[in-house]
Specification:
CATH topology of the largest domain: Rossmann fold
Keywords: Membrane, Transmembrane, Transmembrane helix
Pfam family, one: ANF_receptor
Number of domains: 2
Distance between the termini: 33 Å
Number of strands: 7
Structural class: alpha/beta
Number of helices: 6
InterPro entries: ANF_lig-bd_rcpt (IPR001828), Peripla_BP_I (IPR028082)
Protein name: NMDE4 protein
Main location: membrane
CATH class of the largest domain: Alpha Beta
CATH superfamily of the largest domain: Response regulator
Length: about 200
């Protein structure tokens, strides 16, 4: 299904489900839209047909899912990604870090989960604050570069969309914050794909 606008996706899936004896659906797309995952979750809950999302928007992990949904997504949640990152931070004794987010949906949950991980740990984490960026009214990135320079930690946990990550890394590179001595962990369920982030 190449057309992933909500109406055509629902109509096509319902046509397939009503015309064939299907025991399950394996779904792959090349979008990065969480809307695809939400639609598949809804269809699974309404039809009781198991759906497996393996790539693209269908693999963006949703929590919680619709009641009665049998929608399985092959991806890691933000919480799982953070748990792994904190294990790496602990392993290398990198205890001082800052959180950088945009207003991308889920950023408040991201910040809350970072606090849960640090507050419930016996490690002496030095959380140096949260910087929440609004990229919509800064097309040249001037304010963004200034704000990124104000973060005192060399280790930064970034939560944003893929497009926002590209702008943030361009600004960080221009500000001299993306080279040796700076470690960025990009967290999110929508950052996959074959394209690389800018160096």
């Amino acid at each position: 299904l190449n057309d992933t606008n909500p109406r055509s996706l629902i109509v096509r899936l319902c046509d397939v489900l009503s015309s064939l004896r299907i025991h399950g659906v394996v779904f792959e797309d090349d979008t990065r839209s969480e809307a695809v995952a939400q639609i598949l979750d809804f269809i699974s809950a309404q039809t009781s047909v198991p759906i497996i999302g393996i790539n693209g928007g269908s693999a963006i992990v949703l929590t919680p899912k619709e009641k009665g949904s049998t929608f399985l997504q092959l991806g890691s949640s933000t919480e799982q990604q953070l748990q792994v990152i904190f294990e790496v931070l602990e392993e290398y004794d990198w205890t001082a870090f800052a959180v950088v987010t945009t207003l991308f949906p889920g950023y408040e949950d991201f910040v809350d989960y970072v606090e849960v991980l640090t507050d419930s740990s016996f490690i002496g984490w030095e959380h140096r604050g949260v910087l929440t960026l609004n990229l919509t009214d800064d097309p040249e990135g001037t304010r963004l570069r200034r704000q990124l320079r104000e973060v005192s930690a060399q280790i930064r946990l970034l939560y944003c969309s893929r497009e926002e990550a590209e702008a943030i890394f361009r600004a960080a590179r221009d500000a001299g914050l993306a080279g040796p001595g700076y470690i960025w962990f990009v967290v999110g369920t929508n950052l996959g794909g074959s394209d690389q982030l800018p160096e």
